[in-house]
Write a structure and sequence with these properties.
The protein is of the alpha+beta class. It has one domain: Rossmann fold (3-Layer(aba) Sandwich), CATH 3.40.50. The chain contains 8 helices and 4 strands. It has a 4-stranded mixed sheet. Helix 3 (about 55-65) links the parallel strand 1 and strand 2 (about 65-75). The longest helix has 16 residues, at about 165-180.
Length: about 220
């Protein structure tokens, strides 16, 4: 993505840095650390859900941001893959994966910002639908599994599941994304899609959370 941006968005006023902002501050590049306390505006678009060390990320963000600067944040929410199950099935599946309510997913971030000297200026959750080409399913599945991995119970991760449970997990996850308009769980949706049974494209659903924060302080 960085290389694409360098080739297609060449401006003298733009510098591209590739960093893992969830690393300890001392592990970041000298160039980035030189921005300490100088950044006045930050945009982060649909990426925060992949960050494992959220606390360190917020600390690093606070370090580079100037007082009274703002960050405009969006992230893809993790859908509740157990929402269409019967009560009994849900209890069983939540022994493996339990996704927090959507409001709680937002609070998990806003609480971190509040504890690091920020004011929360806005939060909002929106639903989106778009056409998704089935050919990309195999590419996106590992990313989606990683997205849910943080909510696996007992620290087992998706790799710790039996083959049967992992396939069930994938099917329920896929149902949430491409069968969102139906109240009924389709337990074989992913399998049919990968075998060509759903055609070339499907309607894909996702939720996006938007947060605007301001770093407190006086310049």
């Amino acid at each position: 993505m960085i290389e694409y941006a360098k080739q297609n968005q060449k401006f003298a006023s733009i510098e591209y840095l590739l960093e893992d902002m969830s690393k300890p501050w001392d592990g970041l590049s000298v160039r980035l650390r030189a921005l300490e306390g100088k950044v006045s505006l930050i945009f982060t678009n649909s990426t925060l859900m992949m960050i494992q060390n959220k606390r360190q990320f917020v600390r690093n963000l606070s370090t580079i941001m100037a007082n009274n600067s703002r960050a405009f944040i969006s992230f893809v929410m993790t859908l509740d893959l157990n929402s269409k199950l019967s009560h009994k099935e849900r209890i069983e599946c939540e022994k493996w994966v339990k996704v927090p309510k959507y409001e709680q997913q937002v609070h998990n971030w806003t609480d971190l910002f509040l504890n690091n000297g920020y004011t929360i200026e806005m939060t909002e959750i929106k639903d989106y639908f778009y056409d998704f080409k089935i050919e990309y399913a195999k590419i996106t599945l590992p990313m989606l599994e990683k997205l849910y991995a943080g909510y696996c119970m007992q620290g087992c991760g998706v790799e710790g599941m039996s083959d049967e449970m992992r396939q069930r997990f994938k099917e329920q996850m896929s149902d949430q994304i491409i069968n969102a308009r139906s109240p009924t769980l389709d337990r074989c949706l992913l399998s049919r899609g990968l075998s060509g049974g759903l055609g070339e494209s499907v309607e894909m659903f996702y939720k996006i959370a938007f947060i605007i924060v301001r770093k407190n302080g006086t310049n």
